[in-house]
Write a structure and sequence with these properties.
By secondary structure, this protein is mainly α. The chain has one domain. Helices cover 75% and strands 0% of the residues. The chain is built from four helices and no strands. The radius of gyration is 14 Å and the shape is globular. This is UDP-N-acetylmuramate--alanine ligase. InterPro entries: DUF2484. Pfam families: DUF2484 (PF10658). It comes from Roseisalinus antarcticus. Keywords: Membrane, Transmembrane, Transmembrane helix.
Length: 85
């Protein structure tokens, strides 16, 4: 098994563990995973090809659609709602 595949598996396990945390405790690990994802997707694409990278990108966008939507709206200066706590 390649190092990038192992890193991807560990990232998925960390994301799953983060999802089980209460919302107020998800911010730090969630932002860390959000920041590491583009690097990991690039690494997977470089080692395994564009179709694996495409699947990884699709999975990432699916998992982080709400935080990404929030960050994009905030960057554009639009109104945003805080997530329920």
């Amino acid at each position: 098994m390649s190092a990038s595949a192992l890193a991807g598996i560990l990232w998925v396990l960390a994301a799953t563990a983060t999802a089980f945390l209460p919302m107020r405790r998800q911010y730090v690990p969630g932002l860390t995973l959000l920041a590491l994802a583009p690097v990991l997707i690039g690494w997977l694409t470089w080692q395994h090809g564009w179709w694996i990278g495409g699947f990884a990108l699709f999975a990432f966008l699916s998992m982080f659609r709400n935080p990404l939507r929030y960050l994009i709206r905030r960057a554009l200066g639009l109104t945003v709602e805080a997530p329920p706590q």
